[in-house]
Amino acid sequence: MAGRGSLAAPLFWTSVVGGTAALWLGRPALVATGLAALLVLLRALDRPARFRRLVRRVARRHADTLALRQRQESFVDAYGNLVRDGWLREREYFVVRTVLPEIENRGFSDYAEERFDEMVEIVEAVAASVELPDETEAPDDGVGYEQFCADRLTEAGWRAHTTRASGDQGADIVAERDRVRLVVQCKRYGKPVGNAAVQEVAAAARYWSGDMAAVVTNAGFTPAARKLAAATGVHLLHHDELPDLHPVRQIRGGRAR
């Protein structure tokens, strides 16, 4: 109904203005009115396609991140079932927070509700189109995974080293770059990481006088973990995001080392 209304108004006013002009200018104005009405009609008919192109363009700007989130927020449970609940929430969040403002600014606000599922499907397709690095390259054991993450940080310009197994106070890696200290906890999991890891690395950052804190995993994070991380300034990362992690002072440590 909204689409019909948005078409009826331009056609009506084109006819009114053109008809009035035709009374004064005759046949040329009548022909021009017909052409203008045809352009209005063609533009209206092309509107759904322009809408889909816009949504796809917005999603493609964030394609790599969406693909990582899809991988993080999907896992196989103990019964062999593929659980995608986290990814389903993530893609809807992306549509609401990132796509909707764009389409509303471009005159498609009437599509926000009636074509919401279509937007979600486009986001799903864009995320699936990205070819990510092979997940099997990350070691399965905890110690190996910690070294794997430390190596990635080193390649990105950090001076990174793993901590000893005992007495680390929740820190698996301590790294420094540009006088910024990063404290990391690594989780090689088969399910989303909970908020306990966020609590531990936040405490570890204070112990190690860290400026930044992060939990790195191959899996995703629970909603509770994301909420706590937002409140504490802890980064929640997939290991593929480590090469793009830049030093930023966020957390003030309480103990000098």
From TrEMBL:
**What's a GO biological-process term for it?**
DNA restriction-modification system
Where are the membrane-spanning stretches?
A: 28-45
In terms of superkingdom, the source organism counts as Bacteria
Gene Ontology molecular function, alphabetical:
DNA binding; restriction endodeoxyribonuclease activity
One Pfam family name is Mrr_cat
InterPro entries named among the record's database cross-references: Restrct_endonuc-II-like, Restrct_endonuc_IV_Mrr, tRNA_endonuc-like_dom_sf, Type_IV_Methyl-Rstrct_Enzyme
Please state every residue range assigned to the domain named Restriction endonuclease type IV Mrr: 144-244
UniProt keywords (A-Z) are: Endonuclease, Hydrolase, Membrane, Nuclease, Transmembrane, Transmembrane helix
Tell me the protein's name.
Restriction endonuclease
What is the originating organism of this protein? Methylobacterium durans
